[in-house]
Amino acid sequence: MRRIWITALVLVLMAAAAEAGLAVVGGLSRIASGEPGQEIEYEIVLRNTEDTEVVVRVYPTDYIFFADGRSEYGEPGTMERSNAGWFKLSTEWITLPARSEAAVYYRGRLPAGEPLSGTYWSMLMVEPLGEPDPQEVKDQLGRPGMAVATQVRYGIQIITDVGQTGAPDLRFLDRRLIDDNDGRVLQLDVENAGDRWVYPLTWVELYDETGGFVGRFESSQKRIFPGCSVRHKFDLSEVAQGNYKALVIIDNTDEHVFGAQYNLEIES
User: Fold this and answer.
1) What confidence score (pLDDT) does residue 149 get?
2) CATH number for position 143
3) DSSP H helical segments within 41-92, as ranges?
4) So what's the pLDDT on residue 267?
5) What is the distance between the alpha carbons of residues 230 and 157, in angstroms, rounded to a whole number?
């Protein structure tokens, strides 16, 4: 039987992760603030948790995402608010010996003389390289067979704020009550039409027809960059049939607080 390798690329965008002997120390985002003309440096510390060496490639891409689940990773520096053209990597390839750590630096300068305002960002991809061992690829009869190799890429968000300039402008888009695997859910799409990112707390307060408070229902915390949108879901499975007023609060825990009010009819 012919040997066949199938590689599945998995992009990891979590607070922390380790796979295939590689870990990104300190989470998967780097945030810095500066003024036009100022130098900035981002440090990415990589850790090899295994007993064999690992070869890692690091490279930039642009990054934008939408409430419908789409994410786009464009050529670095092509997106309107990309900062990828401002910085250069200290190295694109690094070999980590067993049980070791090493740092990669992303250095550059904010452009001077340009009308910069708010938040600019991009992504650094960190990709360990490898392939299945042919000696381990066997079928049930001991013959060479098919292997599936999962190759994990870590996406590190590189965020640059231009001083205290810019402001978010959150806009409420599509909303609907839906039934999904988790029960009855209020689904709400939110877009940032401003020029500065936010990472707000988001919840819904429900009030019945008499004005009585029914409960507070929270969604997960999500970053929203300028020009991007996210989808929030609020579990209302335990709410009884009836008519309600829903007060949506999006609080960035600073002066930026956004709200909207809707009428909801929950049927049995």
Assistant:
1) 54
2) 2.60.40.10
3) none
4) 87
5) 16
- Render pLDDT for 119-175 as a digit per residue (tens, 0 to 9): 999 999 999 986 444 455 455 455 555 555 556 789 999 999 999 999 999 999 999
Closest CA to 87 of 74, 76, 95: 76
3-class secondary-structure state, position 32? strand
User: How many Å apart are CA 58 and CA 77, to the nearest integer?
Assistant: 16
Together in a domain, 152 and 246:
no
Nearest-angstrom CA–CA distance, 132 and 160: 38
CB 85 within 8 A of CB 114: no
Q: How many domains does the chain have?
A: 2
Dihedral sign computed on CA atoms, order 135, 138, 142, 145? negative
Residues 16 and 66 in one domain: yes
Predicted confidence at residue 146, as pLDDT, reads 56
CA–CA separation, 151 and 164 (whole Å): 39
Would you state the structure tokens that stand for residue 212, as one six-digit string?
């009585």
Q: Hey, is 105 helix, strand or coil?
A: strand
Residues 95 and 199 in one domain: no
166 phi-psi bin (left φ>0, alpha ψ -120 to 50, beta other):
left
What DSSP designation does 85 have? G
CA–CA separation, 145 and 134 (whole Å): 9
- Domain holding 243, by residue range, is 170-266
Angle at 47 between CA 34 and CA 133, to 5 degrees: 130
Same domain, yes or no: 119 and 29: yes
- Spans in the chain with pLDDT lower than 50: 1-9, 14-19, 131-134, 137, 140
Which are the contacts of 251, defined by CB distance < 8 A and separation ≥ 6? 200, 201, 202, 257, 258
